[in-house]
Structure formats: structure tokens, C-alpha cells
Write a structure and sequence with these properties.
rod-shaped; eight-stranded antiparallel beta sheet; six-stranded antiparallel beta sheet; 4 helices; 53% strand; 7% helix
Length: 367
Amino acid sequence: MMHNIPRTTARLAVLAGCAFVALGCQVPTDLPIWNTVWQVPADSSEVTVASLLPASVTIVDVSAGTKAFSFGLPQAATSTTLGETCYACAAAAGQRIPKPEFTLADSATVNLPTDVVTADIIGGSIDYTLSNGFGFDPLNPGPTRGWMRVLVNSGSTVMARDSIDGASLALPSGGTISRAIQFIASQSAPIHLNGPVTVTATLFSPAGDSVTINTSEQFSVAASAHDIRISQVAVNVPTTTFTPQHGTVDLSSLDKANAGKIAGGAVILGITNPFAVGGSLSLELQAPDGAHVVKGFTLNVGGAGSAPSTIRLGLTSNEINSLVGQKDVAITLSGSISSPNGAVTVTPVERMAITTLVEATIVTGGN
């Protein structure tokens, strides 16, 4: 509580001097006017990073007290016919011949989720399935064994790799193999992902026993990732609804007896905004007796390391007097936000902190 005296103490000193010296000074009849400033704290609130994320990105617990982002990638699928990958087979379509040697190589590319620009991967895996529609085992067509390589990369960055040796694994006609490969990433050595992901499958099938050549038969690879763990992500934040923040303030300590003596007031917001977003917001005060006050303001664009800011929203005498003496005055912050400077880089634990004070200036004294 603060006390301000608008009239100078010099006048009081003169009055005192008159009393002691008794020189016939006239005692002023006006009493001093005191302004008493009351500040009542309201509920604080926090806006978590979840409010800025696209629907494809979630926050998950990875260990006690540790969180990460998570998203999946659409399935990447590729299939190749025997005729496309084995030129000697194409020339002998429909014939039964010793199976020629060939190398199958194919790839499929998938994009990042909508509104995700970059991501630092710290864990997760790729699940893939091989489906053999050839009329023979391409890994074991005869005495010599073949092999299979699966590579997952983004640009020149290798994200995951796997290999299959025909000496240890069979893939008969009509058979499938399902495997999971871990990303080559960790908390201390994340993979920075800033573009599409490509899954490349390479199959070497050596010469083998006699088979009937059907060039339309297909070999297929399908891969997907459902739980990629991310330590940091950059997302686009188009103009979107600010997650409404709700709280209450108890103004019953400002008794109704003060109504009319309150010359004005304010709502003071203390905001720490680690996000590079801003927008147009409004603050609504709704009293139980129906009194309703709305104030608009601008949320300035923040960012990592941004200093806390204070926003003061003035209340007229009528506005503050309509609220005093009431216990559960509801406070709601709402509006819209966007990222005017491009993608916003965030971590799972960041949050915007908002504190609220309601201030009233009570005038006492005077005639």
C-alpha cells in the first residue's frame, strides 16, 4: 500500500511555525488530502508451449521430470516390379531360366508435418515392412546369399540404417519381414531435421536356381515413424486463438464504503513471454453482480531471454467502483496471436507467465 501526499510538506511546516511562534498566523481550514493506493493480487496463469503447437506435435514424458515433443511421419511406401529392376528378366518374360543377378534400388520421400519447419530428433524409431511378391526368395535364390540395405536420411544427414543378410534371414515368395530401426540420435547428439525424409531400399539378389519369370511381380517396402522424440522444434504459428486464461480476484477488501471515494484504478499485468509471438488481446473483468469491464491491449512479441514486461490498463472511477466489495471477480484474457517474424523455435518446458494486480486509488481527507 502506498501513500501519496499531493500537497507539499512545506505548508505543514509553516502551520507548525505559526503554532510555536504565535505571530498571529491564520490556521488553514482545509484538511490534507491523502491518496491511498491499494493493490490486490489476482490469480496468476501460465501459457504452455502446447498452445502454439500444430495438431501433429504433442508433448510426452520421456523420463522423470524430462519432457520432449513427439510427432509421426506419414507412411513412405515404394514397390518395384521384377521387369523394372531385372533387365535380363524382362528379356525372358514367361520363360523358365536360371534366375539372373540383379540389384533393386528404390526410394520414397515424405514431408515433415504441416507447420513444422525444423526439429532436433533425440530418439525414436522407424518401422518398416518388406513384402516379397516375387516367385522366389531374392535373398536366397540359390547357393549364393543376397542382402538388403535400408537407409533413412534427410538431405545428406543419415537418420537410421539397417541391413539384412540372406545367410541369416529368409524371405520366401509371398512372405513379409517387419523390423524396427532406431534413429542415430540422442539427447547429447541430436539430429537436426530441416526437410523431407527419404527412405531408400537397396536389394542385391544374386544369380540362382531356375524360376519362371513373371515381370509384373512386385517387391514392396513400407516404412513409418509413429513416435519421434524431439528436444526442440521450430513451428509456424499462423494467426490463431490465444488459449484463454481464466482467474479471479477478491476485491471484497475494498469495502463498498469506499465506493465514490475511489478516484480510479488499473489492472497491472506482469508478462514473461519466451515465445516469438504477439497479438491483440483483451482483458475482461466480470463481477458476480453483473458489472462488466473490458480492456484491450497488445501482447508484444517475445523470445528466448526476453525481459519481463509490465502492461498497465487504466480503469476509470466508474469502472473500478463497479467492481469493489465483490469477492470472486472473474478475469479472462483472450484474443489472437501470430509469429510475425517467421517460425518460432520452442522447447517442451517453455511457458508464458502472467501475473495480475488490481489497483485502486482511494481519496481521503479534505473538506
